[in-house]
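Record passed on underneath.
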Amino acid sequence: MAESGRTWGPPRVVIVDDQPMMRIALRTILDAHGIEVCGEAGDGEQAVAVVRTRDPDVVLMDVRMPGRDGIAATAELTVQAPSVRVIVLTTFDDDEVLFGALDAGASGFLLKNSRPEALVHAVYAVVAGDAVLDPAVTARVMRRAERPTGAPNVAQRLTDRELDVWWLIAQGFSNAEIAARLRVTEATVKTHVSRVLTKLGVRDRVQAVIAAYRNGLATTTRHVAPHRDPAHD
């Protein structure tokens, strides 16, 4: 599958849901906000095929569908189309669905009763490299992240500036907000974020936040100084 890294034009979205009326409703919301719906699918098997041919930026993925479910499809897309971001949309907010989606590599998790504005924000957020969790489930993710795992302290692998960026990610700052806080460009922040994710061994910001809680970084107070010397960043 292609990894386009598209940076121009409106986000391209594939909608995956076994209910035609839900697909129509989602398309209507996205069309109204200038987001291009480039494909649709009614199950996980079709979703993988559509992504292969349409090369979207984002997939809106239902969970409970006939045949291959949304979590299995998300796991396959994570491997075959790593540049594509998956937002799981579901009426189910139980832990099995939530953590199954996150473990499969989803960059966002929203309940279907979320406001349309939240859906639009989520699409733009994941395209920008951020991750999105429905407020109704965030606390549960944080509780699981706080359980001891016995893992080594990965913070030792990061530079001081990368620790600053990791801490800001854990506090919920977007790339633009981090750039303003550090007084650097968003391109510089994206480079730092990429290095943080690589050193942590995680795919996206949701996993980085979980790692921050597991390592005790998220709950600490950290003084983050603005950019001073490029040689130290």
Remarks:
- The chain has two domains: 12-143, 154-232.
- The first strand starts at residue 12 and ends at 16.
- The domain at 154-232 is CATH 1.10.10.10 (Arc Repressor Mutant, subunit A).
- The beta strands are 12-16, 36-41, 58-61, 85-90, 108-111, 132-133.
